[in-house]
Amino acid sequence: MSIKKTIITVAPTGAWPKKENNPNIPMTPKEIAEDVYACWKAGAAICHLHMRDDEGNGTMDTAKFRETVNLIRAYEDCDIIINCTTSGDLNATDETRQAHLKELRPEMASYDCGSMNWMHSGLFINHPKFLEELGTTMQESGVKPEIEIFDAGMIYNSLYYLKKGFLKAPCHYQLVLGAAGGSTATIENLVYLKGLIPEGSTWGALGIGNGHVPIMLATVAMGGHLRVGMEDNVYVAAGQLAESNAQLVTRAADIVRIAGNKVATPAEAREILGL
Ligand code: ZN
């Protein structure tokens, strides 16, 4: 039997946590690029990038993405797969959410397959026309969607966009559990959502906050891929802040090996995901 390869994605920054939540979170293009390089060395095959403006708020500013992506690509030995968010600022326009994909052509980007009330504080809108446009932009720019799923309806939505051709099989799904407004981070929800994913797809999952480690363990056991990083979780244990994103990647890599799997290199991840 061949050894199963597990892809580790690192999401180093996200749109929300700030230095007061964890002083080790990377915020500037230089900090993010250095962090991503350390995470690649620790076993991350994909980096999922968010940008911050000079005040530390989430932004879809193409210039920030350009600077960061160029800094990462400048590491000659680093072949990490770059995955850019399309949802880094609730006030961004449909245009600014796609502009960086057209210019920078990252290998992957997030595709949030529905709308929701976000963290009891705002609206996370992914209206039907935007999802059609984004699917088209991604296909034209050679970007593989990471289809982010916060509840079951978003998986059913993805089946519609697959049928209409705005998404192309085989899809890659990211089950995001524990974001207020979406599914809670329980094993029951993980099993249920995973069961709705169309056959032939690849998938990963993550739990935000308390559910982080249980969801990681269950995901490895179920054959899924992993995502770690301060976008989802600024702690390494209860009350103990993570020292770095690389620390979180290292722990995930240990779990993958304990489970008897191999940590996928970026080249292996490209093969698994069909990039
Ligand atoms: Zn994200």
- Any idea what the shape is? globular
Judged by helices, strands and strand pairing, the structural class is alpha/beta
Low-confidence regions = none
Largest sheet: 8 strands, parallel, barrel
Mean pLDDT score: 96
Residues in helix, %: 25-40%
**Head-to-tail CA distance between termini:** 25 Å
Order of strands across the biggest sheet? 2-3-6-7-10-11-12-13
Order of helices and strands: EEHEEEHEHEEEHEHEHEHEEEHEH
Bound molecules: zinc ion
Count of discrete alpha- or pi-helical segments spanning 4 or more residues: 9
Number of strands: 16
**β-strand amount:** 15-25%
- The oligomeric state of the chains shown is single chain
Summarize this structure briefly.
With 275 residues, the chain is of the alpha/beta class.
Tell me what the structure shows.
The chain is of the alpha/beta class and 275 residues long. It is 38% helix and 21% strand. The protein has an eight-stranded parallel beta barrel with strand order 2-3-6-7-10-11-12-13, surrounded by seven helices. Strands 1-16 form a two-stranded parallel sheet. A two-stranded antiparallel ribbon has the order 4-5. Helix 1 crosses helix 2, helix 1 runs parallel beside helix 8 and helix 2 packs parallel to helix 3. It binds zinc ion. Zinc ion binds next to loops.
Topology (elements, then pairings):
Blueprint lengths: L4 E2 L1 E3 L18 H14 L3 E4 L1 E2 L5 E2 L2 H12 L7 E4 L11 H9 L3 E5 L3 E3 L3 E3 L3 H14 L2 E6 L2 H13 L7 E6 L9 H10 L5 E6 L4 H10 L3 E4 L6 E3 L2 E2 L3 H14 L3 E2 L2 H8 L2
Parallel strand pairs: 1-16, 2-3, 2-13, 3-6, 6-7, 7-10, 10-11, 11-12, 12-13
Antiparallel strand pairs: 4-5, 8-9, 14-15
Helix pairs in contact: 1-2, 1-8, 2-3, 3-4
The structure holds zinc ion.
